[in-house]
Amino acid sequence: MDLRIQRSVVSNLRTRPKPVEVGPFVAGLDPDTASPFVNYATPQPGATITAADVAALVEAFEQADRKPRLEYVISAAPQLESLLLAAGFTVEARHEYLICTPETLVLSRVPSDFVLEEPGTDGERAGMISAQMEAFGEAPEATEPAVAGVRRAQERGGIALAARTTEGVWAGGGQASAPQDGLSEVGGIAVREAFRRLGLGGTITAGVARLLFERGAEIAWLEAGGEDSWRVYERVGFRPAGKRLYISL
């Protein structure tokens, strides 16, 4: 499973607006945002990596005016971490990733007074993004590049699913990348504070996974940022499967 997940990450980064291949690395660079959580690199699984390769990757990030950062499945490049540490990188986090299949998925009831829908207009996309940003503690402003990014992802086969009240107030949302090799990463699951503890997080997660499976994906995967989200994801059928590393300069 580790190799499948890592290969899908590589393939997904190659669909970014400015993908860059540096030796054994693929970097997904976005000209519209400097966010390190959007601009990062990952190694091709099984590739031989040297200190010179790491130096070349750092230079590519610096030329693009982006912070050098990597995300990857640890077992796909077991010697890479020591090379990165020697180059001055610092570990941000080690997370277990979880996977879900059509057989393990547990659908969750949509709480009363709420609806789930795939945003079909830029106005709806902006509403979902604003709710997600507020939930993540950021200014609830949906920029044109962010809206265009969601639209492009949907056009490529990705999923966006928004939650709103029946009165039209945006409560949260979640997304998933277009499947690569039958796999898709689920992310951005977020619910505004005023609407938490109602089961919306699990409902959105299960809804995104259901849409992926209906459209041909074999496995949905994600990472939990804490014990609360871990429990939410396990309730809807996600199970631990491997470990990933986040590391930056």
UniProtKB/TrEMBL annotation:
Pfam families for the chain: FR47
Keyword Transferase: yes
InterPro entries reported in the protein's UniProt record: Acyl_CoA_acyltransferase, GCN5-like_dom, GNAT_dom
A GO term for molecular function: acyltransferase activity, transferring groups other than amino-acyl groups
The keyword DNA-binding appears for this protein: no
Residue ranges constituting the N-acetyltransferase domain according to the UniProt record: 115-249
Name the UniProt record assigns to this protein: Putative GNAT family acetyltransferase
Organism: Actinoplanes lutulentus
